[in-house]
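User: These chains co-purify. Model them together.
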Amino acid sequence: MGNLKANMTMSLDGFVAGPNQSASDPLGVGGEQLHSWLLSLKAFRESHGEEGGEVNTSTPFAEEILGNVGATIMGRNMFGGGPGPWDQAWRGYWGENPPYHHPVFVLTRHSRAPLEMEGGTTFHFVTDGIEWALEHARTAAGAKDISIGGGASAVQQYLAAGLVDELVISLVPILLGAGARLFENLGEPPPPLRQVEAVEAPGVTHLRYVRGS
Amino acid sequence: MGNLKANMTMSLDGFVAGPNQSASDPLGVGGEQLHSWLLSLKAFRESHGEEGGEVNTSTPFAEEILGNVGATIMGRNMFGGGPGPWDQAWRGYWGENPPYHHPVFVLTRHSRAPLEMEGGTTFHFVTDGIEWALEHARTAAGAKDISIGGGASAVQQYLAAGLVDELVISLVPILLGAGARLFENLGEPPPPLRQVEAVEAPGVTHLRYVRGS
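Assistant: Joint model of the two components:
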């Protein structure tokens, strides 16, 4: 059985997106700076059909984000769109060929039929809570890992429930000042985490934590 | 001329002290967990006249905190005590032989004569702002570095003013949930930082940043 894991890029002041997130600006003000470590890599560019790019100590972390994942869980905002019933014509942020290439389970309060995209990605809309979304994702993933794709709220709910096996924080030295904070709403007591790895890379440090103290 | 630096231990959720800080509990609820990486070290124990302790990849960071510092700047809460005029009999948190062994400049709104302690520590009370405290500390430190001893507010004021040359964050995998946040009140735009080092150690990762992007 695969692990439930989350790989999140976070600013030094704790934000995974900047302020004023919207449908047209899902990373918020300044948030695009967060992922420059990833976007510059050959591993990332290749996965998006582009040439060139860097190979450095971040490469294994990019490959981990991009590989051995059999299913992804994400919050509704990460799929795209605000609250309320679905516009059935809306196909999300990710274009016709989303970069997942596996089943994606979207946490939502409103039912919707599955949405099959190109390249192996099908969005399933789960209305019966995070535990059921995880069950569905586990079945779909088989022996592979399940990734929580974000946003902050989805990761928080799984962390608070003690369901996250592994958390990789890619910490970048920028200060966003405001936005979506990763580490809040984690319950009392918050889940214990154990540091298992820290890797320095150009402009980012990758910190791996597992459940437990 | 020495550098102005701050070495702060921070929880993964961004706090340098837990909630409900008070004169009798300056680190707040759970805050004592922050510094266990440091307190277990031989380098720290020796500096406090104690035997035993560990030697590991954290040791150079402990030695850096404890050495080559010619003067320390701290906020009033870090010296000890609440707002308002001084009780002249109050000699602070640090005992008769504080662990500094050099001049310490306390940021305060209320004047007070210098307080000479045992072992080379003299507390000077500076009422004319952070820039003047830094000037006094530079003069006292000579060629050595000046350390901002905390708390969060003192570090924030120097960061916001662009005066911090080097910031070392010792990041520990605990979640305090609330308390004194380090990275806030940093102005707009916040000061640019550049990552220069990240070192994995048992139960902590040491992250070194310098001013500039």
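The first strand of chain A starts at residue 4 and ends at 11.
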